[in-house]
Amino acid sequence: MCTARSVPGESMNPSEPQPTVPTAPSTATRPLALLVETAGAPWMLLAFLARLPVAMLPLTVLVSGQVLTGSFAAAGLLVGALSLGGVIGAPLVGALADRIGHRRTLVVITVPGALGILGLISLFFWTAPLGVALALAAIVGASNAQVGPLARAAWSTRFARHADARHRVEVAMGYETVADEVSYVAGPVLGATLAAVVSPVVALSVTLVLLVCGQLGFALLNPSDHTRVAPIGRRLTRPGLLAPWIAVAASVGLVFGSVQASVTASLAETAPGFTGVVYAFVGIGSATSGMLTHKLARWSLPDRVIGAGILLALAGGLLVAASLLTGGPLLHAGALALACLAVGLCVAPLLVSSYAAHRE
């Protein structure tokens, strides 16, 4: 007669309660709840509000510059100075965060950003040369606190000791992508609408309040971080391979700037209050295609860039045609919105491809 062999530590009495193994919250079934439980709703809200000023500033500065100078050319120069400052300041902010930590960096970088916006506001009350306005715009751009990258790093810090850290971080990165896109839809609408309908001073003041409160609050609630000095002397073994992809990302930046200027100029006479709403369709298109870009995996990165580039050129032609369209304000704004949506749909594949190439 055979008897069942018992396993050490296992009870043979079916009526006896069996020990249970605690399980972690499922990231698959409730990802947003997991993020809120981990970081807290206040931190997530402040992280979102802190990135709104960056999204608001380009169109706000463009509309404000046109009102201030009476010239779209001068306003475009201001936006260019803002963008150039951001290009120069981004690696410096990253290096500072590595050396003194994220919290201190956020506090330090908030000061010149706030002073720069205050300077732009003062130009509406005191006359100054265009060069002063350009310098202030560059300071504001260079003071971009890079809240998005710092928030992503904070998620990695929070999840570092979890067994399923990789999956949790992937969930957090998905949320951060959505937060970025929502901010780039809401920011231009808020900034441009306030500047065109109320006044540029009000728009810049709201931007200032969001920048100071958002960044300092985000810094206060940020998880403690450890500073580290980046190793010196490390270089890419084949930096030339990145050059084409850097050019792709830079060209997307040129597209954003061109679309902002063209939409603002096109609606200046017919429906200036719709400027932010119309430009928001670029963000809507980019968010939509960004969620679907993974379906393009069957094509190589160069093929994706070529295809998206051709479609972007066609969308640009559609934007030009929409800007020349004659008719009522609503018809004009609607045509521009559709063209902006088409442009946005082509943007995400270009950016995602350039980022993927960088990782490879």
TrEMBL record:
Annotated TM spans: 32-52, 72-93, 105-126, 194-221, 242-261, 273-293, 305-325, 331-352
Presence of keyword Iron-sulfur: no
Region (Disordered): 1-26
UniProt keyword Cell cycle present: no
GO molecular function, one term: transmembrane transporter activity
InterPro entries according to UniProt: MFS (IPR011701), MFS_trans_sf (IPR036259)
Keywords per UniProt: Membrane, Transmembrane, Transmembrane helix
Entry-linked Gene3D superfamilies: MFS general substrate transporter like domains (1.20.1250.20)
Pfam families: MFS_1
Top-level taxon of the source organism: Bacteria
Database matches in PANTHER family: MAJOR FACILITATOR SUPERFAMILY (MFS) PROFILE DOMAIN-CONTAINING PROTEIN (PTHR23542:SF1), PTHR23542
Name listed for the protein in its UniProt record: MFS transporter
